């Protein structure tokens, strides 16, 4: 994927990989077959590079340090790789820089491990210091009696072990951070990662957490990467705890699985960004160009040919879904739980994409994968409001805006109103039009439950000619804004919704311009007819 990005930027990439048929070989400018653990091979390879970078931290750091002393440009720096490839050293480093972490300590024998269990409690996370990824090198002891077996699974104390206090997290988050040669730093939107057997399985962007948590996660990630040396893209994996803390789990000094969605969802993919950073180009815009994205890892379901068949069937189903892109890594060997590719879904909201993902996976109850998600919700307290509210629906249909029309009473079905308003954004709704007569509480109550814009339509009731409804809607308390139109004027509510959506939709904005031109021409045609025929003839037609 780095080679794919480089091909668009006139950057020549040569790769060092021990496999003759590695996935990058078909795309790279050149491929040198050899081990990146062999010092002589790496030195020979480095002589051919203007910049030397790595997409794995499990490399010979001593060789990188030697190359840097010889004037080879390594990005990120060997000092950073040395810190990160030893997870215990990584924890010590970030602790010294004031980064919030789960409590941890080094262990060298069973007695020290038992004391750690007494101090931190159980379950207790035991980790290998080096060569640990995708859950490998981690073991959980649920009691003191399980310590010995957990240590044996990890290869014993001779391997180098440490323990972490169990982090009572409710979500695992991640932030891709880019650092330029000029030490400029940009953070991508915070994502949620979901793991299957300790391997990243699904990534949701952006993470469904409050803005305060997103800012805190970005701040922790920014501070962590500021403490390291060198340019490139880094992945900062985080825990969100029940009490709202953000704890750093670990950092990867390279493009990462949690950032694969950026190829389709962001203005600058993590791969393009890494290349920009290491060669000294300005960093690109990391913001999302689509409201939401889900990345689904294609993990091997079976060995050999049966596994390939299952994966290809899933790709075929994915390509029936709007906004789906498949990436196949072309690894020559299929193994269970091996990352063989990924599928990215982009669309109006994570909720809509979750439904499409379930359809892709053929989960029960999710068959309408091509169903268009409504962008505008039209709600009213009673079916007696429908003769008025239908005008908003007709306008939106005329502009090709998908809608849903529902009866949601603030007084008779408050639970339904709460559920509708609080879930609207996640279901892909972008604007809500709420019609109400009399006390007209519905627009304001809906606006108090959603961050979406709400347009209130005062509906004329049997008394007070709708003025009571109008005054009720326009007198919302500060902090609960509701846009309002004239009594019974659902047509203008529909047009206002189109204009709101048109801010981020060029086609809709063009259609609104055409609507205004057509309205002007209609009026001018009538004016010209009146001028030519005279008022008496005009009225008698």
TrEMBL record:
GO cellular component terms, A-Z: chloroplast
SUPFAM superfamilies: Glutathione synthetase ATP-binding domain-like (SSF56059), N5-CAIR mutase (phosphoribosylaminoimidazole carboxylase, PurE) (SSF52255), PreATP-grasp domain (SSF52440), Rudiment single hybrid motif (SSF51246)
Gene3D superfamilies: 3.40.50.1970, 3.40.50.20, ATP-grasp fold, A domain (3.30.1490.20), ATP-grasp fold, B domain (3.30.470.20)
Catalytic activity: 5-amino-1-(5-phospho-D-ribosyl)imidazole-4-carboxylate + H(+) = 5-amino-1-(5-phospho-beta-D-ribosyl)imidazole + CO2
Record has Transmembrane helix as a keyword: no
Tree of life domain: Eukaryota
UniProt domain ATP-grasp: residue ranges: 91-279
Protein name (Swiss-Prot/TrEMBL): phosphoribosylaminoimidazole carboxylase
A Pfam cross-reference name: RS_preATP-grasp-like
Keywords annotated in UniProt: ATP-binding, Decarboxylase, Lyase, Nucleotide-binding, Purine biosynthesis
Any GO BP: 'de novo' IMP biosynthetic process
Family, similarity comment: In the C-terminal section; belongs to the AIR carboxylase family. Class I subfamily.
EC number(s) given by UniProt: 4.1.1.21
Single GO MF descriptor: phosphoribosylaminoimidazole carboxylase activity
Involved pathway(s): Purine metabolism; IMP biosynthesis via de novo pathway; 5-amino-1-(5-phospho-D-ribosyl)imidazole-4-carboxylate from 5-amino-1-(5-phospho-D-ribosyl)imidazole (carboxylase route): step 1/1
């Amino acid at each position: 994927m780095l080679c794919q990005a480089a091909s668009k930027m006139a950057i020549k990439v040569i790769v060092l990989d021990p496999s003759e048929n590695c996935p990058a070989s078909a795309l790279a400018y050149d491929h040198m077959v050899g081990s990146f653990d062999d010092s002589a091979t790496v030195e020979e390879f480095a002589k051919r590079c203007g910049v030397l970078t790595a997409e794995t931290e499990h490399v010979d750091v001593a060789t990188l340090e030697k190359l840097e002393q010889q004037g080879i440009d390594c990005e990120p720096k060997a000092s950073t790789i040395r810190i990160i490839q030893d997870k215990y050293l990584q924890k010590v480093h970030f602790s010294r820089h004031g980064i919030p972490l789960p409590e941890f300590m080094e262990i060298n024998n069973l007695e020290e491990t038992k004391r750690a269990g007494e101090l931190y409690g159980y379950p207790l996370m035991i980790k290998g210091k080096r060569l640990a990824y995708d859950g490998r090198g981690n073991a959980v002891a649920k009691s003191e009696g399980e310590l010995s077996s957990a240590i044996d699974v990890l290869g014993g104390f001779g391997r180098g072990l440490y323990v972490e206090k169990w982090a009572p997290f409710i979500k695992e988050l991640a932030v891709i951070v880019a650092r330029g040669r000029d030490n400029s730093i940009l953070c991508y939107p915070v994502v949620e990662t979901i793991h299957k057997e300790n391997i990243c399985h699904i990534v949701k962007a952006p993470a469904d957490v409050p803005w305060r948590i997103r800012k805190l996660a970005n701040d922790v990630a920014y501070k962590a990467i500021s403490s390291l040396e060198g340019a490139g893209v880094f992945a900062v994996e985080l825990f969100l705890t029940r009490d709202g803390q953000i704890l750093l789990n670990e950092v990867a000094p390279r493009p990462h699985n949690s950032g694969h969605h950026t190829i389709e969802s962001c203005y600058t993919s993590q791969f393009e960004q890494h290349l920009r950073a290491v060669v000294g180009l300005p960093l690109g815009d990391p913001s999302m160009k689509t409201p939401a994205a889900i990345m689904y890892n294609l993990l091997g379901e079976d060995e050999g040919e049966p596994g390939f068949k299952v994966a290809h069937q899933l790709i075929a189903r994915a390509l029936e879904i709007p906004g789906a892109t498949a990436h196949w890594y072309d690894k020559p060997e299929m193994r269970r739980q091996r990352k063989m590719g990924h599928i990215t879904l982009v669309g109006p909201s994570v909720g809509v994409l979750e439904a499409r993902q379930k359809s892709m996976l053929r989960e029960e109850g999710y068959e309408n994968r091509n169903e268009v998600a409504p962008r505008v919700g039209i709600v009213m307290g009673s079916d007696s409001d429908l003769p008025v509210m239908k005008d908003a629906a007709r306008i939106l249909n005329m502009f090709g805006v998908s809608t849903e029309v529902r009866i949601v009473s603030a007084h008779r079905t408050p639970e339904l109103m709460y559920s509708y308003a609080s879930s609207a954004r996640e279901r892909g709704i972008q604007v809500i039009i709420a019609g109400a007569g009399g006390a007209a509480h519905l627009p304001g109550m809906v606006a108090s439950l959603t961050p979406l814009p709400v347009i209130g339509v005062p509906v004329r009731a049997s008394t007070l000619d709708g003025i009571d409804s109008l005054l009720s809607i326009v007198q919302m308390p500060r902090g609960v804004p509701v846009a309002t139109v004239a009594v019974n004027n659902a047509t203008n509510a529909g047009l206002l919704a189109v204009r709101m959506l048109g801010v981020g939709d060029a086609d809709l904005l063009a259609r609104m311009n055409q609507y205004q031109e057509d309205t002007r021409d209609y009026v001018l045609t009538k004016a010209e007819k009146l001028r030519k025929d005279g008022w008496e003839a005009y009225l008698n037609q």
